[in-house]
Amino acid sequence: MEKFVPTQTFHCSETDYNKICSLDVDVIEEPTTPLIHPMARFWYILSGRGTLKLQDREYPLTPGTLVSILPWQISDIVQVEEPIHIYFLAYSFDNMNSILKTFCTVDNRSFRLMEELGKLPVVDCSEAQARQAKQLFEQIREEAGLDSLPAHRGETDQLHYPFLISKMIELITLYYRAGQASPGVPASIQKSDVLHYMYNHLSEKLTLSRLSKLFFMSESTISAYIQQTTGLSFFDLLNEMRIGKTLNYLIYTDLTIQELAGILGFVDSAHISKVFSAKMGMTAQEYRRTYQNVGILCNIREDRNAYELIDYIYRNCTEPLTPQSVAARFQISQKELHQILLYQVEKDFTDFLNYLRINRACVLLKTTEHPIMDIAFEMGYNNLKTFSRNFMRFRGMSAREFRRKITLQSPKL
Fold it and tell me: How many structural domains comprise the chain?
């Protein structure tokens, strides 16, 4: 019988789906079994020694060690030299990422949380950093209690959520700075990175062919790894991941089902509704009515004006758009336009516009016989040279080579 890696819950807490984070404590006395984490985690080692295998790479665990586990990574404590006393903090990565970006883009610089935390998943704190980390975990414990115990009184306090958010920001800042001071070692590509990459690119058209090129493995090898690890096919796992993200959007935003379909890579609202009902046993609207928590997190939510701005650029990307014209249409400054795009799509105006144009050009290259020059002009480029330069940048090959070698994924898959 095949033995799959167990997958943890899609929520921060198994007892309260509205929690933005949950804390628990445990003592690990013997090696564990591998575990997939759909939700992000921070660990803090209070005492003990052992070895953690994270994404097929091994790291020593000692008192004062901080660990960052990103969505859909696989962890396993493979060796316990002394019983490990450990804090586990689960949190919604997407929500905390959005919160941080509201602060990190004020000076026109983009902060990519996933990238920064992924550079060094395990850091050894200095004595001062270890004391600060322990204090932060204990403050969160005092405020929210332990997830394995009954609900804590702090949850009725109007400042409960802002307090937890502030402590999460402190913890992420501490981790980032401790990591900056640590001698990082570039990590080699591992099979286990496939799951994390898929989660981080759900809004894109993911295919086994694309993953094969990125990870230098055959399509059959990647497909077999996913099946053996999760018990799911490639497309079933994509749906599983997308539903996990959908849960957070339903709870913490008021985006429509159609809007969510576009953001999360579903074909349309009917597709997301069908997959959601099959997975959750209720419709997306029923889930939202039951668990929605919009507004409670200091009004942290997706900004509809920002979504309309992005939708406008998406629908009109072949027109002669400029930062000036788009900013004027939405009655915002060019600086605000820049901040919104960095926050929402992690691209500046020029990169986002070219990204959309090249994506559309790819479809025309495969579905029509139009000359490449005509497609370039149709996509809004004034000359073939600019089109070719951007195509090579975003696709890593020429348009002619793309037309000859690449097969588009069927929208039914």
Answer: 3
